[in-house]
Amino acid sequence: MREIGQESDSARRQYFDGKEKKISFSRLFQVDNHSLYIVGGLNEYVSLLTREYELSKCCHHINMQSKTLTVKQSMTCGRANHALGAVGKMLYSIGGFNFLTRTFVKTCERYDMKKDRWEDLPSYCDL
Questions:
Q1: Residue 59 pLDDT exceeds 80
Q2: pLDDT of res. 41
């Protein structure tokens, strides 16, 4: 758990193994007056020589009352530019795009906020 404040890293940049990483196409969902979830996205390692990408499976919870960020269980499938919604205490991550293979993600996942667990759902049909 990490406190959120002015001294924390930018919401769009993180540093791993000495590399600066820009995060884009993630989804943010406000569950109630004090809880936000940030899910998925595209991690781009910033470099003058190469552009390396990876799809993020991450799930983070932000508690706005306590000003903390908590890493939650990762999704089973990396996805970016996806739909994210909630019904009751479940988050649904639907579809998205895989920038590495330039294909659409045709899977759905459901996250149980109480159990901190993702599960795959049946794939949806081609349109």
A1: yes
A2: 84
Highest mean pLDDT among 12-16, 26-30, 90-94, 97-101 belongs to 90-94
Query: Can you read off the two tokens belonging to residue 84?
Result: 């994210």
**Cα angle value 118/36/55 (rounded, 5°):** 50
Mean pLDDT on 8-30: 58
Count the Cβ atoms, other than its own, within 10 Å of residue 108: 20
Tokens of 23: 């995060």
The torsion angle over the Cα atoms of residues 19, 93, 110 and 99, rounded to 10 degrees, is -50
| Domain 2-121 is found in CATH 2.120.10.80 | yes
12 vs 52: CA distance, rounded Å: 16
Q: Residue 103, Cα to own-chain centre: how many angstroms?
A: 18
Extract the tokens encoding 22: 């820009």
- Across the range 8-29, mean pLDDT stands at 57
- Where are the domains positioned within the chain? 2-121
Q: What is the pLDDT of residue 21?
A: 56
DSSP letter (8 states) at residue 9: P
Tokens (6 digits) for 122: 């049946």
